[in-house]
Specification:
Elements lengths: L1 H52 L3 H5 L2 E9 L3 E4 H13 L4 E14 L2 E13 L3 E13 L5 E9 L8
Parallel strand pairs: 1-6
Antiparallel strand pairs: 1-2, 3-4, 4-5, 5-6
């Protein structure tokens, strides 16, 4: 009987010694997951830029959730279908070329929602038109495990009511 108590005591002693290490490690697990999610979102935004710039309509629309509600200054509010149709029309125009570049300011992730503050710079040729839009994107991690934009707002700080 004494031996059983010694074995149990030794086991609890090891648990007491190891417990702080386990608690310490678990504290940082969510941080790693959030960092991974932020990296995934950053990657998805870069892939969208590549898709758009190479005129890949399917790839460009994959960033958006089917439940998208977007608001672009000068264009108004639009759904997934409307926004993708607008992208498709622009990319199908053989007379013009479009090139986006991306500047992510910050990404805030909380479980299945994330907010991204960013700037997009669009160059349109011919005409060498350059515009910068300031944006705020709300991402949701969807059932397939992919982060997609469910809401976004974009505006051009130089825009003066369409003038």
């Amino acid at each position: 009987m004494r031996r059983d108590r010694t074995t149990i005591g030794a086991m609890f002693s090891r648990v007491r010694i190891g417990l702080p290490f386990i608690v310490f490690a678990l504290q940082f697990h969510p941080v790693v997951a959030i960092a991974d999610d932020a990296a995934d979102i950053r990657s998805r935004l870069r892939r969208w830029t590549e898709s758009f710039n190479s005129r890949d309509k399917v790839g460009a629309c994959d960033l958006f959730s089917k439940s998208l509600v977007s608001d672009v200054q000068g264009q108004g509010e639009a759904s997934y279908e409307t926004r993708c149709a607008t992208i498709g029309k622009a990319l199908d125009d053989p007379q013009r070329s479009f090139h986006y570049s991306l500047n992510i300011k910050d990404i805030i992730v909380d479980k299945t929602l994330a907010v991204v503050r960013l700037n997009w710079t669009l160059k349109i040729s011919p005409g060498d038109i350059v515009s910068t839009e300031i944006g705020l994107d709300v991402f949701r991690k969807e059932n397939d495990g992919r982060w997609r934009i469910v809401r976004f707002i974009a505006y051009d700080p130089a825009f003066e009511g369409g003038k």
